[in-house]
Amino acid sequence: MNSKTRKILIATTNPGKTREYKELLADLDLEIVALNDFKDFKIVEETGSDFEQNAVLKAKGYFSQFHIPCLADDGGLMIDALDNAPGVKSHRWPGYEASDKELAQYALKKLTGIPKEQRTACLAAWVVFYDGQNLLLESGEINGYITEKFPHRMEKGFPWRSILFISRFNKLYQDLNEEEHAVINHRRKILEKLKPRIKQVLMI
Fold first, then answer.
1. Whose CA is closest to 92, among 79, 77, 114, 82?
2. CB 197 within 8 A of CB 30
3. Which of 38, 54, 55, 134 is the most buried (most CB within 10 A)?
4. Which of 74, 100, 131, 175 does the annotation list as catalytic?
5. For residue 84, what pLDDT is reported?
6. What is the tens place of the pLDDT at every residue in 52-90?
7. Closest Cα partner for 73 from 29, 13, 11, 22?
8. Which domains does the chain have, with CATH numbers?
9. Closest Cα partner for 186 from 122, 93, 135, 130?
10. For the whole prediction, is pTM greater than 0.90?
11. What is the pLDDT of residues 155-188, one digit of tens each?
C-alpha cells in the first residue's frame, strides 16, 4: 500500500486536540484529517447520558457524513464532591457554551470552602473508532484534585488542565513537561490500546 493512501477523520474542531491526535497517530500510515478541513458538515448532537454514548454518536454520525473511518472522543471533568459534575456537561456547565476562563472560574466557585482533601477529581475520556462496520472503544482517566487558585495561564481548548493539580508531580496538569505529560496522558494510553486494533481493521 502506498504511503498516506488511507484517511482517518478526527472528529473535533478543537485545534489543540487535533494537534495532539496527529502527534499520537503519527506512526500510522494514514492521512489524518479533522472536521476543520471540511467546509460543510453537520454538527452531531451529543445527546448521550455519558461519555461513551456521546463518543459513539460522534464516531457514527461523522462517518455517515464523510464515509471516512472516524475517531471520536468525549470526556471531561468529574469532581467527586459535586457528584461527578460537570461530567457530560463539561463544556456547558453554566448552562451555555462557556469559554475556557468561564469554565475554570465556575468550577472554583462551586468548590468554594471545600478543603483540599475533598477536591479530588479526574479527567475521563472515551475514544471510539468506527469505519461503518467495526466499533472499537477504550477509556481512561487522569486523577488529581482541583486547585483553589485561578490559573496563571490557560492552554486554549483545555480549561480543566489549568485547575487540575497532579500530586504525583506536584504540578498543575498544564505545567507538566513533555515527559511528565506522556506518563499520565490518558489519550496516549487509550490510543496505545486502540492503534493495534485500528491497524488490523484498516490492514495497515
1. 77
2. no
3. 55
4. 74
5. 96
6. 999 999 999 999 999 999 999 999 999 999 999 999 988
7. 11
8. 7-202 (3.90.950.10)
9. 122
10. no
11. 888 899 999 999 999 999 999 999 999 899 999 9
Task: Report which of 15, 11, 127, 22 is spatially closest to residue 58, judged by C-alpha positions.
Answer: 11
DSSP designation for 98: -
Mean pLDDT computed over every residue of the chain: 92
Annotated catalytic residue 29: no
Q: Determine the Cα–Cα distance for residues 185 and 188; give it in Å rounded to an integer.
A: 5
122: its cell numbers: 479526574
**To 5 degrees, how large is the angle CA 48–CA 49–CA 50?**
95
**Residue 136 cell numbers, joined:** 472499537
Extract the C-alpha cell encoding 113. 470552602
Beta strands (DSSP E) in the chain are 7-10, 31-34, 70-79, 85-86, 120-130, 135-146, 164-166, 171-172
CB environment 20-38: b (16+ within 10 A), e (fewer): bbeebbeebebebbbbeee
